[in-house]
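Pinned message: reference record for Putrescine-binding periplasmic protein
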Amino acid sequence: MEFCLRAACLALTVCALAAPSAAAEPQRLNLLSWGDYFDPKALEEFTAETGVVVAYDVYASPQALEAKLRAKNDYDVAVAPGPSLQALIAGGALRKLDRAKLAHAQDVAPEMAARLAVFDPGNQYGVAYLWFTNGLAFDVDKARAAGGPAAFDPASWDLAFRPERLSAFADCGVAIPDSPSELFPVALRYLRLNPASRNEAELRRAGDFLSAMRRAIRKFSDSDDVGALASGEICLAVGSSLASLQARARAREAENGVEIGYAIPKEGALISIDALAVPLSAPHPEAAFAFINFMLRPEIAARNTNATNLANSVPASRPWIAKDIAGNKAIYPDPDLMARLFCTPNPDAATQKLIAREWVRVKTGKYP
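Predicted structure (tokens):
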């Protein structure tokens, strides 16, 4: 019965989208997303099924996404990381979702919906879609040789946060992202404090803690260190699961003998979730809801996972996911590690200012 109702709902949506005569121009859906985020054939299938042509525009950073949507461009669907989703909601740039038109939204894993609720309480504006984790990426051979059996434990933040451990990797190269929003929450968690703390004393303590890393760090990077890991320039990095997989693929293509590993520390780590959202100024909201519902179909979500190496939020998609992806714990962590993943909401302005000052001290050894 449920299947029949869903099928009927989709059929009505398709009919509504296809209502114009054959002589009319095909309807257009303006999509704003990261590059290479959707399986091209899935986009083609959506067009074949609905008659809606997808115009795919890309952004390179969350800041660029937010700027485009605040400028009220004619985008119908946007892929928004959690922190951007929160900022766009606060700025009144998004439309509330019509859940009656999103039958497949109920297939999203409750735990993923709960994590997205950190940024969007009640998931009123976004639907959790693809996600990845942040942990430790490393050149397997160099890191083991540098640290030795006792020092090399990628399953713990000890490797990065204990100076006596981290210093062993200084010669072969350590990189961390130039991003306090990625480092402060995990440092607070490691210190057994609230990773979303707004307490000044606790944030200064995290700043002291992170400052101890500075002497061993070769570079503070503006992006994930895919190239540096793949080429052997560095041996250890705090980074994302996606970047580590990209570095591994690049190293294998180069046939340079570099093997890249990735681990989610047992103390807990950040999970980054992208949401599918509809801008307030969307010119084609019906097409937008149809697109989101289509992408939430289990078999379609699986195809996007297979195309990107990003996990998706639809558990029913697992039968269609390639075995080497579904079984890769860097992409789909086991339940114990999943329970240790967390999100933190955007801090208020005063806290952001404090963290920014502390981050300057982490990088330079002195306050601005």
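Pinned by admin. Summary line: The two ends are 64 Å apart (CA to CA).
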